[in-house]
Amino acid sequence: MIQKFRWKFIGTSVAALLLVLLITLGGLVGITRVQSKNEVDRVLTALVKNEGHLSPRNAHAALGNQNDPINRNFLGGPYNPEAVYQYRYFAVTVDASHRVTVVNDNNVYQVNSTKIKSITRKALSDHQDSGSVDVGRNQYAYRIAKNSVGQTMVVFLNETLIYNRFWLLFRVAVVLGIGSLIVFAVVLILVSGRAIKPIVDNYHKQQEFITNAGHELKTPVAVISANTEMEEMLGNNSEWNESTKEQVEKLTKLINRLISMARAGETGEITLSKVDFSKLVEDATQDFKSVMKQNHYVYQVSIRQGLNVVAEKHSLNEVINILLDNARKYCDPNGKVRVELSKSALSKNAVLRVSNTYKEGKNEDYSHFFDRFYREDESHNSNKGGFGIGLSMARELVEAFHGRISVSHKGDDIVFTVVLKIAK
């Protein structure tokens, strides 16, 4: 249980760090992506405005609004006249007869006039005012507008170079994020063992105390039981003796279950093997047959034969007995108890369902039903008996088998479901 809590804590901490990294690094990468897109739009606007030419004197607009303190100080930065030389672009004009004339190709590398004309015709064929075209290993954004003399002008800007900063930051963010998660997880694994050591020691001491106290309690309980039987033999049988016998039986069950839970906590592990689930359920239901009949319950049993699961035989038998005993105690008068063992839909798991009529359970909170000593109201405890550790023990054992146990209320029935992996 402690180790499970430890790994759950580590998993939660790593998930929390992952969320923080996604928000911070993701936000940084997202802002860079938006800034790159805005920069492409600004430079294209500047190129159109200056008819395909950029210089330190006419390119102020390419770096955004310098009157905006946020853009000037954090996003675009202050205007630097030298920044215009980082952009790769070219511009052309197209006359009425669709003849392409190169206006400016001084700022591109290995893109001759023939290729420029071909790229222009490809852009014009899209019939869009703006878009992008591939030129070798680069992608050029383009925009179509009218120049000062009314001619159609197309400006092209290499956006691959602008977006390179975004992709670099994206790769760095991914590597740093994964690296941070790995380092954080390793450190947490190394440190968490030492951090929870006092809790582990305290937990083991509690288990040892329960085991020792349980063994010590067995002696006075045995004496009380023997004295009660002697009173009966002497002819002093009465309702008080019967009540004492019932309470001794309940106390004996409580002690045995407490010791079983403590031993399971001390060892930490249960040796799992292939167990005939069908046989265990069949034997347990037969043992409870007379008890169910005595309480005037309708007792229905449906067992699929040949189901073997991964578990520990005696512990699994205890789980079945706990659920059957719980159904016996909490079934409504003249109600129905049903036990069903079957395969799951994909035939990978064995599913045990133990249900009983329990009309009062419609409005109960089932989220704490497997908590130790849990009772939603005192009348539930006083009328039906029980000490509230049976279901908690059943859950711990089922989880030790790497299975699942749940409870629900359907119609007038409360249903306990155990799912265990079928052994191959």
Give a description of the structure.
It catalyses: ATP + protein L-histidine = ADP + protein N-phospho-L-histidine. It is an enzyme of class 2 (transferase). The protein is α+β, with helices and mostly antiparallel strands. The protein has 3 domains: 2-165, no CATH class; 198-267, Signal transduction histidine kinase, dimerisation/phosphotransfer (DHp) domain (Helix Hairpins, Orthogonal Bundle); 273-421, 2-Layer Sandwich (Heat Shock Protein 90). The protein contains 11 helices and 12 strands. A 5-stranded antiparallel sheet has the order 2-1-5-4-3, with helices on both faces. α1 (2-49) runs antiparallel to α4, α5 (197-233) runs antiparallel to α6 and α7 (277-287) runs parallel beside α9. The longest helix has 48 residues, at 2-49. It is elongated and about 125 Å long. 22% of the residues are buried.
Topology:
Blueprint: H1 2-49, H2 69-75, E1 89-94, E2 100-104, H3 113-125, E3 130-135, E4 138-146, E5 152-158, H4 159-195, H5 197-233, H6 239-267, E6 273-276, H7 277-287, H8 289-294, E7 298-303, E8 308-311, H9 313-330, E9 336-343, E10 349-357, H10 378-384, H11 390-400, E11 404-410, E12 413-421
Parallel strand pairs: 7-9
Antiparallel strand pairs: 1-2, 1-5, 3-4, 4-5, 6-8, 9-10, 10-12, 11-12
Helix pairs in contact: 1-4, 5-6, 7-9, 9-11
Average pLDDT reading = 84
Distance between the termini: 27 Å
Q: State the secondary-structure class.
A: alpha+beta
- Counting H and I runs of at least 4 residues, what is the number of helices? 11
CA-atom Rg in angstroms:
39 Å
Shape by Cα distribution: elongated
| Helix percent band | 40-55%
**SSE string:** HHEEHEEEHHHEHHEEHEEHHEE
The beta-strand count equals 12
